[in-house]
Amino acid sequence: MDIRDKSRKLIINFFSPGCEHCQYMAKQYVKNADKFKDINLLMVTISDSSEVVKFKNDYHLDSLPNLVLLKDSKFRFEKLFGTAMVPSFFIYKNNKLMKEIIGETKIENLLTEDAVTGNR
Fold first, then answer.
1. Which of these, 31, 34, 37, lies nearest to 11 by C-alpha position?
2. What is the pLDDT of residues 44-54, one digit of tens each?
3. Is residue 119 part of a domain?
4. Cα–Cα–Cα angle for 10, 52, 94, nearest 5°?
5. Which residues pair with 99 in a beta bridge?
6. Distances in Å between the alpha carbon of 110 and those of 5, 75, 102?
7. Is residue 117 part of a domain?
8. Is the pLDDT of residue 119 over 90?
9. 100: how many CB neighbours lie within 10 A of its CB?
10. Which residues span the domain enclosing 44?
11. How many structural domains does the chain have?
12. For the range 102-106, what are the long-range contacts, defined as Cβ-Cβ under 8 Å and sequence gap of 24 or more?
């Protein structure tokens, strides 16, 4: 996966392994893998690396070749994106923010193309 590929939609998902909504979304990513096959998924967390590895294994995230897990060890996410609420979703296409969702959402909301920002 090349997250720099601007022709593909990119979903940045700020999460915490202990968050029930985040756990639900991880299950939905795997369950709906076919719907996400042309979308790059970048999941970012500030949680401990051992928790992230357990989360990845528990939810079989390795089965998604287009998903990358990142640990924000320098705590820059909030400064860059303006929130540290989990879950948060930032959806980009062609290097442009198309949609921002703060808080829980349905999987369908991540797949639509309409440009909606807000929910803060």
1. 37
2. 999 999 999 99
3. no
4. 5
5. 91, 116
6. 18, 25, 12
7. no
8. no
9. 19
10. 9-111
11. 1
12. 103/21, 104/21, 104/24
Per-residue confidence band for 112, with pLDDT thresholds at 50, 70 and 90: confident
Tokens of 49: 């690396």
Report if residue 118 sits inside a domain.
no
Does residue 100 lie in a domain region? Answer: yes
For position 34, which CATH number holds?
Answer: 3.40.30.10
Read off the pLDDT of residues 43-93 as tens digits, 9 standing for 90 and up.
999 999 999 999 999 999 999 999 999 999 999 999 999 999 999 999 998
Task: Report pLDDT digits (tens) over 4-38.
Answer: 667 789 999 999 999 999 999 999 999 999 999 99
Write a three-state SS string for 30-93. HHCHHHHCCEEEEEEECCCHHHHHHHHHHCCHHHCCCEEEEECCCCCHHHHHCCCCCCEEEEEE
